[in-house]
Amino acid sequence: MHILLLILGAVGTILFYLSRISSGAKDVADAAQTISNIPRRRRHAKAVNTRGLALVRTPIEAATVLMLSISRMSDDRRLSDRERKMIERQLVSEMAMEPDDADGMVLQMELVHEDVTLPESALFPMVDILLPAIDKADARRLAGMMNAVAEVHGKTHEQLEFIRRYRERMGLMG
User: Fold this and answer.
1) Which of 119, 128, 133, 163 allows an S-S link to 59, with CB 3.0 to 4.6 Å?
2) Confidence of residue 174 (pLDDT cuts 50, 70, 90)
């Protein structure tokens, strides 16, 4: 009888330690899975938390943001209907966009530009997008487009300075 109790005690002890080992292995596997998902989680969190000018990716979007910045430097600090129409006209005539696409682009970039307190703060990030993507001729055309938007209500000193700084950053001064 005592041998039977000893065998049952040994089997019970072995089963107890096997269950502990298997749960430990499961914990190690879960930890490895969690660690392997960290890069994906970070990419997702970064994409979800992206706002404002960080959403601008293409040269057309950057050009639209620059023209919106010019319009917000006018005396009333708002995008008027005339300035909106001028920006849309510039996108259609200079960038061969359809009128509906130009309207959508202006609306989308308005939402992106909404969080920008100082319109001039958009210059450097947008130039960083434009520099590798467009040539000097396109950069000159964009300066002309910004001039056209600035002329809608009469150019201010701030607008002229913004365009000068754009031309300087794009290497058009020489």
Assistant:
1) 133
2) low
